[in-house]
Design a protein that fits this description.
269 residues, mainly alpha, two-stranded antiparallel ribbon, 2 strands
């Protein structure tokens, strides 16, 4: 009950911030809060430059690759459970059951998810969150937002964030100190995996803010509307002769977050 109340308060806070930002809307319909977003982008970038990136670099250089793989697999396996729930909520029964099977197989034969044997068994990995589920249900994305430490988002994804946090299995791990250490390790491991991508971004993009914003919005649109027609994707087990266009392979700009990974979500994924 207490956790449900906390989740509701977070959602109310997200809505309150959105209403507050409406008073400083700018001319770009996709990014009406650009002034605020750029300031938050610079804040996140500073935190990443002086704190997260150096730690992630040291972690990548010192930690054996098989340990890094095990950490990524472990938290990725926990994320498969929430992905499966969202697949089912979106009406993707076949993909949802595939993700349930992934989670069960990796959690047992894969030694708590340290080994990704499900992929070798032909069960592909997916990544779904409640923001995508709301999009499939017809909820519009709304304006672009940059969240403190969490990075690129939209109004819809921000409202969905408390559900994603509640769906993170690791959030319920006791004792608290183990949970906190695991969360920090997941954040550092995720950032370490993005070091090469962020370096390419820094070298290639004239305006990193615009590059990340446009990449994030395009990616989220392709995740919800892979057909490119503005219509939510059809359930994967839908008996129809029509075939959907492949999901865009654009880089995951959200995770880049000018170098800062999504702490809350990736603790869940």
């Amino acid at each position: 009950m207490i956790r449900s109340t906390q989740a509701f308060r977070r959602a109310a806070l997200a809505l309150g911030v959105t209403v507050m930002l409406a008073g400083c809307a700018g001319p770009n319909p996709r990014d009406p809060y650009e002034s605020y977003n750029r300031a938050m982008f610079n804040f996140n970038d500073t935190v990443d430059t002086y704190a997260l990136k150096p730690v992630a670099t040291g972690y990548k250089n010192v930690t054996p690759s098989f340990v890094q793989t095990g950490v990524s697999n472990f938290f990725g396996n926990l994320g498969d459970a929430w992905t499966a729930i969202n697949q089912l909520l979106q009406g993707n029964g076949e993909a949802g059951m595939s993700d349930v099977s992934r989670f069960a197989l990796n959690s047992t034969l894969g030694v708590l998810g340290l080994f990704d044997i499900a992929s070798e068994a032909g069960l592909p990995k997916h990544k779904e969150d409640f923001g995508q589920t709301l999009g499939v249900w017809g909820v519009q994305s709304g304006p672009y937002l940059v969240l403190p430490l969490l990075g690129p988002s939209t109004v819809r994804d921000t409202v969905a964030l408390p559900a994603d946090i509640a769906g993170n299995i690791w959030r319920y791990k006791d004792p608290t100190n183990v949970r906190n250490i695991g969360t920090a390790l997941n954040i550092v491991d995720t950032r370490a995996g993005l070091l090469d991508a962020s370096t390419l971004l820094e070298d290639a993009a004239l305006d990193r803010y615009e590059f990340l914003r446009d990449g994030y919005l395009q990616r989220r649109e392709s995740q919800v509307h892979p057909d490119g027609d503005g219509a939510p994707r059809k359930p994967q087990n839908d008996d129809t002769d029509e075939t959907s266009a492949p999901v865009s392979s654009e880089p995951a700009a959200k995770e880049l977050n000018s170098g800062t990974p999504p702490a809350a979500n990736d603790a869940s994924q």
